[in-house]
């Protein structure tokens, strides 16, 4: 549908019983957003403030948690506005921007976790060379690539859809994503196959690299002394817990891209649950996992909330 300024608007048809559960949706999302901002910002601030945490592993953790704040901030304000509105609509240009921001920040998480896996591999498997390999310059390169690479890849994908003619104006979801291409009158073959390239390069490859890296760490740990096994277990356990979440996250994101290019449809409740687990689970549980399982971070968290006690 068009307004007087010839801006094309799209109806977001992804909520289940929005009229009946409007305020429940709002309370859940508002509470989740506040928790995400507070918990992630607390851990990031502790890492920035304390010099003992200025190490590659903690820098990557801070970047990962900051990424969760960016992901949530790019999505939640619009979601909160939508659930309180009688009609859930978005302009096509804003929909493309939301698609770009959502996928860029989401797939940046994959690359950051891959960088963290490499850091743990060097630390455990090549401890004597760790200071020379993990220099500040290399850390900066990893961080820049983690944010810049998805942005460049998705800029092309979104750019190919800017001038596309729309024949449908109802998007089946609460957040604009790859399924936007289903609104086009004609699906570009370049956009169609480019989506599979994105999944392979930013989803499958990082996950395979992470799995390969931790497998190597596990093999070396089993062949080494107790001290190496203890170090591996202590530093890798939080990453492995996050990796379990990443597997679920990557499957959800990859599944969304593939389904958008195939003639497959799901019930509204299934689509809603898959979207909510992406925007809720990772941003909420990653800082909790790292805050509780990383010894040095946990020590500073306890000092922050229990200042009178000695740890």
* Termini separation: 61 Å
Portion of residues in helices?
Answer: over 70%
Number of helices, counting only DSSP H or I runs of 4 residues or more: 9
Q: Which structural class do the helices and strands define?
A: mainly alpha
Question: Which word captures the global form?
Answer: globular
Largest sheet: 3 strands, mixed
Q: Which stretches are poorly predicted, pLDDT < 50 over at least 5 residues?
A: 1-5
Strand content: under 5%
- The radius of gyration is 21 Å
Largest sheet: spatial strand order? 2-1-3
Protein traits:
311 residues, mainly alpha, three-stranded mixed beta sheet, 3 strands, 3% strand, globular, disordered N terminus
Tell me what you see in this structure:
The chain is mainly α and about 300 residues long. The protein has 9 helices and 3 strands; from the N terminus they run E-H-H-E-H-H-H-E-H-H-H-H. A 3-stranded mixed sheet has the order 2-1-3. Helix 3 packs antiparallel against helix 5, helix 3 packs antiparallel against helix 7 and helix 5 packs antiparallel against helix 6. It is globular and about 65 Å long. The termini are far apart. About 35% of the residues are buried. The N terminus is likely disordered.
């Amino acid at each position: 549908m068009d307004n007087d300024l010839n801006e094309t608007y799209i109806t977001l048809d992804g909520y289940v019983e929005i009229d009946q559960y409007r305020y429940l949706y709002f309370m859940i999302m508002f509470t989740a957003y506040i928790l995400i901002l507070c918990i992630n910002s607390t851990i990031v601030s502790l890492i920035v403030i304390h010099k003992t945490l200025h190490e590659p592993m903690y820098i990557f953790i801070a970047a990962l948690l900051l990424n969760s704040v960016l992901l949530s901030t790019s999505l939640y304000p619009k979601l909160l506005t939508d659930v309180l509105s009688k009609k859930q609509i978005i302009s096509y240009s804003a929909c493309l921007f939301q698609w770009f921001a959502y996928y860029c920040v989401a797939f940046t998480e994959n690359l950051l976790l891959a960088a963290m896996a490499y850091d743990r591999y060097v630390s455990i498997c090549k401890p004597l060379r760790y200071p020379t390999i993990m220099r500040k310059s290399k850390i900066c390169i990893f961080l820049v690539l983690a944010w810049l690479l998805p942005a460049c890849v998705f800029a092309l994908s979104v750019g190919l859809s800017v001038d596309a003619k729309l024949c449908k104006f109802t998007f089946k979801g609460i957040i604009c994503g790859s399924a936007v291409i289903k609104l086009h009158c004609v699906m570009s073959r370049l956009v169609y196959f480019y989506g599979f390239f994105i999944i392979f390069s930013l989803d499958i490859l990082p996950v395979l690299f992470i799995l390969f890296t931790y497998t190597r760490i596990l093999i070396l740990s089993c062949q080494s002394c107790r001290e190496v096994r203890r170090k591996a277990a202590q530093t890798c356990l939080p990453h492995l817990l996050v990796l379990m979440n990443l597997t679920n996250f990557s499957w959800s994101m990859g599944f969304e891209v593939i389904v958008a290019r195939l003639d497959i449809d799901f019930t509204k409740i299934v689509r809603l649950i898959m979207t909510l687990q992406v925007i809720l689970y990772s941003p909420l549980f990653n800082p909790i996992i790292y805050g509780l399982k990383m010894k040095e971070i946990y020590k500073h968290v306890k000092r922050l909330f229990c200042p009178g006690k000695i740890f």
